[in-house]
Amino acid sequence: MEGFDRRYVFVVILLVVLIPLLAPLGLPIRVSKEVVGAYDAIERVPPGSTVYFACDYDPATLPEVHPMSYATLNHLFSRDIKVVGACLWPGGPPLLEEVLTRVGEEKFGKKYGVDFVNLGYKEGREVVMVSLGKSIPGTFPADFYGTPVSELPIMDGIEDFTDVAMIVNISAGYPGTKEWVQQVQSRFHVILAAGCTAVSAPEYYPYYQSGQLVGLLGGLAGAAEYEKLVGVSGTATRGMDAQSLGHLAIIVFIVIGNILYFRSTRSRRRTRG
Amino acid sequence: MKREVPLIITAVFGSFMVIEYFVPHPTVTSFGEMLQQWAIIVVAFAYVLGVANIVRINGEKISRRSKDWPYAFPLLAGLAFMLTVGVVFGVGNGTLFNDFYLYAYAPMSGTMFSLLAFFIASAAFRAFRIRTVEAGLLAVAAIIVMLGRVPVGAEMWDKLPVISDWIMNAPQMAAKRAILIGAALGAISTGLKVILGIERNYLGGD
Amino acid sequence: MLPSPFLHTMAALLTIAIFSFLYKDNPVYKFAEHVFVGIAAGYIVAIEFQNVFLPNLWKPLLAGDYKLVVPFLLGVLMFSRFTVRFNWLSRWAIGLMVGTFSGLAIIGFAQGDLVAQIQANMLPLKAGSLIDTFTNWVVIIGVLATLVYFFFSKEHKGALGASAKLGIWFLMVSFGASYGFTVMARISLLVGRLLFLLVDWPASFGIELIH
């Protein structure tokens, strides 16, 4: 194992992920109850209400969580729900702008400042979350473009979290879902649904079980499941076949690696004995 | 003065953040909002400080001709370009700043992290060793979850996703809950130690 | 806005430059890596300026909210870290940040994690179905056993030792699940970059490489 060139492993992983992208298998996607929870929560929001969309990620985790933003915003805009979006990660605002424009403006014909707004980014993490609970315009006096929020029709009557129907949080780490639960859901008792990277998802299951999260989308699989629920075939759905074969490859590596290890250990013991 | 004033500031701000949760009086809440606005501004300066440090370090790298010093030039050039373009021409949709964010920063950031896919595969082959019962338990849980969460698992055995979901919602969730509770106790005690001035490492030396 | 084929090609070449590290560390990768760090740093300062300094500090200050001079001065004092004689002044701003976050952490962890999670663990010992009853028992015992494992004030012997051992097993299951999800995360990131190279890049030239 010491002399083994790991680049052979790299080539195998590349091929295993690449081939299903070129020739999809079309394996059916099964939806989990955590994802259904998020979907149902948005279904319960009356049309015309406003939802706070917390976009807490940056390009490093784009492939995993950006499809969640697309899918959930598809759902929100299809139900004529207004979206107030903002970011606590500095790398977030252009991504939020891209998805709001593509889905809100280009697909559903929604108008910026009336049906949706990108408030941009604010530094301060938990402090910003608590501050939003007191005053959203006070925390974000202007949007991403510098326009005072008092001049934006969508922000009429939006003072704090009592004026939004729920919070949809898509996050990639800190600050993210955990902080939204600790500082906002527990303090202001807002309905909170979250999407997160697969790395973070296991630690949020206690929040889902306790009801602090009404739904949880975990990783690319969670995004693909939500795409299925809203009837959209996006990059997450496209990537699930590659995901399947990638997982099989990792399992095979674990098994082969252990077989080779135990064989070499046994032969070393025989040599010494 | 050098240590006492910051300790007092820490105690005042920290205590107020706790008190403000329990006292809904308008005077308290409005003072709390003001302190939170101040914290937002000060934390933003910390980021700028970090970037200023990057400029200082790379400037020294060039002047001392340290290892890989020529690469400091593209670093500083990229920094100056994004800073100038963003501050002068704005950061919104359609700006040069936004173009370089989406087509230079974003792809490189994404690719850096995607390298991990290769390294996790290499680690699975070379380092994942099932030497004990506990490690075997870890491996079995990992394999069930890896297969149960993707479509191929349901194709192999239709009960696999159900078992995977149960693992995530029962034993896995139980252990994570215990970690959450333990971490919460630790965080609360650390927070109290910081506010009361018992924990002072954040002040640095001298 | 620059032409789409140019932007996509720039992104593709930078992607391939970073991927070249998989073969071995090389000057092309190092160049791309340093450009990335520089662009990221410049990006952060520009976004802080446009999204924080201007709307939350500069404009309100000029409009007459003179209390903001305090955080402004504290923020400027942070740069005293670059001096040897006056770097202790930066501690005032650090004290503000540390105090604020510590206070919020106490409330957040106490309310959001400690109380809520203990409350959520009060599950019925007899639920609607056999599987739900079994699941509740697994969760309750799992939480207690794992908490016992983390109790280091007494030696893990006898009944305490057995509970701690059970706690370790629950932890191993949770680590295995976390490993599985981590694998999912890493593979997803690679899928994303490959989709960009196979779909988005050719599409910028009007080519549909894959359906």
Q: Which structural traits does this protein have?
A:
heterotrimer; A: 273 residues; alpha/beta; Rossmann fold; six-stranded parallel sheet; 53% helix; 12% strand; elongated; C: 211 residues; mainly alpha; 6 helices; 75% helix
Describe it.
The complex is a heterotrimer of chains A (273), B (206) and C (211). In chain A, 53% of the residues lie in helices and 12% in strands. Chain A is α/β, with parallel strands linked by helices and 273 residues long. Chain A has a single domain, classed as Rossmann fold (3-Layer(aba) Sandwich), CATH 3.40.50. In chain A, helix 4 (93-107) links the parallel strand 2 (82-87) and strand 3 (116-121). In chain A, helix 3 (62-78) packs parallel to helix 4, helix 5 (126-134) runs parallel beside helix 7 (177-188) and helix 9 (219-230) runs antiparallel to helix 10 (235-272). Chain A is elongated. The two termini of chain A are 22 Å apart. Chain B has a domain at 1-89. Helices cover 80% and strands 0% of the residues of chain B. In chain C, helix 1 (4-19) crosses helix 2 (27-62), helix 1 packs across helix 6 and helix 5 (130-149) crosses helix 6 (158-204). The model of chain C has no long low-confidence stretch (mean pLDDT 94). The chains are: A alpha/beta (273), B mainly alpha (206), C mainly alpha (211). The interface between B and C is large, with 130 and 113 residues.
Helix content of chain A: 40-55%
Name the structural class of chain B. Answer: mainly alpha
Poorly predicted ranges of chain B (pLDDT <50, ≥5 residues)? none
- Calculate the terminal CA-CA distance of chain A, rounded to whole Å: 22 Å
Cα Rg of chain A? 22 Å
Shape of chain A: elongated
Task: Please state the average pLDDT score of chain A.
Answer: 95
User: Which CATH class of chain A is shown?
Assistant: Alpha Beta
Termini separation of chain B: 12 Å
Low-pLDDT residue intervals, each spanning 5 or more residues of chain A: none
The helix/strand order of chain B is: HHHHHHHH
Oligomeric state: heterotrimer
- C-alpha Rg of chain B (nearest Å): 26 Å
- Helix count, DSSP H or I runs of 4 or more residues of chain A: 10
Largest sheet of chain B: none
Structural class based on helices, strands and sheet pairing of chain A: alpha/beta
